[in-house]
Structures are given as structure tokens and as C-alpha cells.
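LAB NOTEBOOK - FOLDING QUEUE
OPERATOR: T.R.
BATCH SIZE: 2
PURPOSE: Compare the predicted C-alpha cell outputs for two unrelated chains run back to back under identical settings.
PRIORITY: normal
REVIEWER: second-year student, initials M.K.

ITEM 1
FIELD SEQUENCE / FIELD STRUCTURE:
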Amino acid sequence: MNLQIEMEHHRGVLIVRLSGELDHHTSDMVRMQMDEAIQRRQCEHIVLSLKNLQFMDSSGLGVILGRYKLIKQKGGKMAVCDVNPPVHRLLDMSGLFKIMPVYENEGNALTELEVVS
């Protein structure tokens, strides 16, 4: 299975929706597209929606952590939302939720990040 990436800007927040599999075959594409969107447009924060992400491996974790570091260096925050159980388990075991909040849905994540702005 391949990966689809959809990006949208909402009041200074880059919303990234991933569908499919984020693995060593697709991680470079996601990294490049997210980096380009972060550099090209003014976005203070990132919301990563994983509702339709079926699988993720360690290279996917690397992409997420790298974008987290990038946005944090710019003074922003990153949040994850709509995480399905298998991906949630991987993110939890990796310790990602200790540094990045997870929300039930995009609306909750956007509300929290806009309060922070």
C-alpha cells in the first residue's frame, strides 16, 4: 500500500493528513513535502492527523520527530490527532506522547493550538 498526504493551512496551523503506510518507502516524500510547506508558508504549529494511517515504522517516527524539532526551533508546537490503535501503540512505546500532545480529533487539536498562539 502507498501513502497519500493532504496538507491544509488553517490560521497559522499546518494540518497534515496521512493515509496509508508511513514507512521507509514513503518517509522521504513526507519529509520533503512537510519541510517545503513549513519553509514556504508561515505556519506556527503543526497538527498531524493519522486517522487513516494504517501502518508506521521507525522511519515514520523519524519523520515525525524531525518535523517536531523543526517547528519547535521556530517557537511552534506540534500535536497528533485521530490516531488508530496500532499506530497509537507505536507512538506510545516510542515515548512520543511525552513530548507531543495527542488529541481525539482535529477540532480539539486546532482549538488547543490556537489558544497557545
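ITEM 2
FIELD SEQUENCE / FIELD STRUCTURE:
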Amino acid sequence: MSALSHLRVLDLSRVLAGPWATQQLADMGAEVIKIEKPDGGDDTRGWGPPFLKDSKGNPTREAAYYLCTNRGKKSVCVDMATPQGQEILRELVKSCDVVVENFKVGGLAKYGLDYPTLSAIKPDLVYCSITGFGQNGPRADQGGYDFMIQGLGGLMSITGETAGEPMKVGVAVADLFTGLYATVAILAALAHRDRTGVGQHIDLSLFDCQLAMLANVASNYLVGNVQPPRFGNAHANIVPYQAFETSDGHVLVAVGNDAQFGRFSELCGYSEWAQDERFATNKGRVINREILIPQIQAAVKLHPRQYWIDGMEWLGIPGGPINTIAEALAEPQAVARGMVVDIPHPAGSVKMVANPIHFSQTPIRYENAPPTLGQHNEVIDKLSVE
């Protein structure tokens, strides 16, 4: 049995953050009913190419973007703008444990699908609202999108080369981390409900989660009162901890302590670095990074990438290659961990990145691919029969 096989979730969310949260719940066994508009469904179904190809190699209407966050769900078409659709959803809520939505603040009240209305129907309901800026504050009514949140939330100011322009991260991390925070919050609220019988409203914003993600960099500012600069691939608090150019490519070096730096100095052919009072401790290396890093770069450039990869592995120094996506997914470690799964789909099959959680008692099962539009409309038919 799966960990959450007793759970039923009504997913009213769209795009990425909300669907990412509900996919985590679905992976752990929850029955997730994804509500889609009858005319076209979730917008991300059309966010391609690429589109999934059927067994004959013909493209389907299932965009890769949609596929990545909707594994294991049931797709039900309901027009919530109509009284009939609203009544269907309110009836569905009676049998659900969780509702997840990411409409603008107050956006579902006009449909009678807001928390006060639904909690009156089901007092133990856990209702998770994901918005750009939360339920209160001067920006509460403003929509939020990952790109703008990365900028507004400070992430872009510390991402990119020192002398270059601010850069966003290559994936929608504000959306994805908010989805994970939502999953954690939902599970905590369910634990509270199981003890007390009382549900609650979870208020999550992309902006809040982005600020929380700043972690040690925000702490550096709050403690040191100095605006953190962009370090490119380097680290604000650890040296050497960045990418270096070899004679035939690039390699990552992630020295985590002084002992590792001593071994890395020997690998570079400059064991005296570890005895130099400017570089012997991480504190000294951070303070004197402008002196040390050019010397390391000159040494690394003398040998090919594989020399450094093999040497660091042999000496127990964290580091390695900078893989492409194809190389990362083909890594022997990824293969050994089963990080790519092939799931049966009406079009044939779909390859997906697996959930990284490994349970000893309730392993995640990959039995249901992301649904086609309206694939599970019988849920409504069963409701009418009941």
C-alpha cells in the first residue's frame, strides 16, 4: 500500500507550483482529481513543442511541460463558471481531504469554491491557496509568475557572472520550491487534522518562498548588512567552490574544509598553499579569494578535465564534471537509482524523471501516466449515481 492511499485531493491549480505539489501527493499514493476546463484543459497542455509522440512517431496534444507535473492524476472536465459545475465541485469536496488552488486572492469566492464556503461544507478540509504574494499585503491582488518573482525576490541579483547581467535560474525554481513547501504544509495540516479533526487554510506565496530560498545568502545580509554580490559559479562563503577551466573543458571544485584544501593543493602541485596563512583556513581563503583563485585557475588549466575528475575522486575532494541534461540523466548513478521511469500512456508510453523519495515500506509506484483531457470524467458519473 502507498503512503497516502487513503487521501483524496481536489486539484484546482494550474501551470506549475500547484500541479507540482499535487504530483508529489499523487506519487505517494493520493487520489488526485485534476479539474480542467472542458475547452482545451490546462494551459500547459499546449506549451510546446516538444509534444509526446505516439507509438507511430506522430506528435500528440500532450506537451512535455504538462507531462512533467501531472503524473498519477485523474483528469475531470468541469466548467466552474457555471452553476452546475460549481455544484459538482462542491459535491466532490465532501469526499475530499485536500483542495489545492492557485487563483488570485478571492478569485474562487464568486464560484462558491473559496475556503470559507467549502470549509462550511467540510470542516476538516485542508485547503491550500498558492498565490504570487499571499492573502494580504500591498501586492496581494497582483498576479505572480516565476520569472518576476526571481527578480523581485532577490534571486536574480545574486545569479550570473560578477560583471554580467542578473540572470534567472534555468528552471522555474520559485514555482517548484513553492510546490514543495505546499506539499510539506499539506502533510503537516493533515497530521493536525488527524489529531484534532479540524482542517485549516494554508496561505502560500511564491514571493515568500523565494525569500525563504535565499537561505545563507539572506543570512549573510541580515548578519553582515552588506549587499551580497553575484559570484558567478563561485560561493559566497566557501573557497575554492566554483567552476574552473581545464585544458579541454570545465570542471567543478567544491572544497568543503581545510583538510580537503590541503589535498587539493597537492593535486594542483602547490602543497605550500595549505601552509600559507592567507589560504590555510576557509576564512583566509574567502578574504583572499582574489589572490588565490587566479593561481588555482592557472594550475587547473595545465591538465585536461579527466585528470581533475579522477584526481579529486581518488583524494576524496568534492567535484566533478558539468553534465548536459542528457549526460546527467544517463549517469550510471541515475540509472542505478531508477531516476528515469517509462510509464504506459494512451499514446504508448512516456518517459519521466522519477520522484527522488525512496520509501522502505511504501515505495512509490509509477502506474498512471499524466492523464489525457477528461480521461476520468466517470468520477462525475459515479458522483451522480451516489
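REVIEWER COMMENT (ITEM 2): The mean pLDDT is 95.
FOLLOW-UP: none requested
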